[in-house]
Specification:
single chain, six-stranded antiparallel β-sheet, 8 strands, 32% strand, alpha+beta, 24% helix, endopeptidase fold (from Nostoc punctiforme)
Length: 130
């Protein structure tokens, strides 16, 4: 695992157990998947102007690029995974190397899920400086 990937995974794991809140951006009030990714990567100003369903992958890619991430062919620990969690639902999480750390709306908290990624992965993204 790359050194910066270790730090990203550690920051994401520190958020496990935080309450899930749609469009949440702070651990104190709750996080959604974008809030988790922003916290794990140390990003400020994550967008809140998106629908929970029906989002476009192109808009998500533009947002990830604007945040300083680039697509990568093969995910490594600490990378952001973009997934299709349902027919009209995009989802982000942090790849831990052997599972996924993500904001789980059903469980109402940030969780770490070991094993295979449960949804189709649309792409993996990494900070340009990593």
């Amino acid at each position: 695992m790359q050194r910066s990937g270790v730090a990203v995974v550690a920051r994401a794991r520190a958020l496990v157990g935080v309450r899930f809140r749609p469009q949440g951006r702070t651990p104190e009030t709750g996080l959604d998947c974008i809030g988790l990714v922003a916290g794990a990567l140390g990003l400020d100003g994550a967008p809140r102007d998106y629908a929970l369903r029906g989002g476009s992958a192109e808009r998500l890619w533009a947002g990830l690029r604007a945040a300083g991430l680039s697509p990568v062919e093969r995910a490594q620990a600490g990378d952001v995974l973009a997934m299709r969690a349902g027919p009209e639902q995009l989802h982000l999480g942090i790849f831990s190397g052997d599972g996924l750390i993500h904001g789980d709306a059903g469980l109402r908290r940030v969780v770490e899920r070991p094993g295979p990624i449960p949804w189709p992965v649309l792409g993996a993204w990494r900070r340009k400086e990593d």
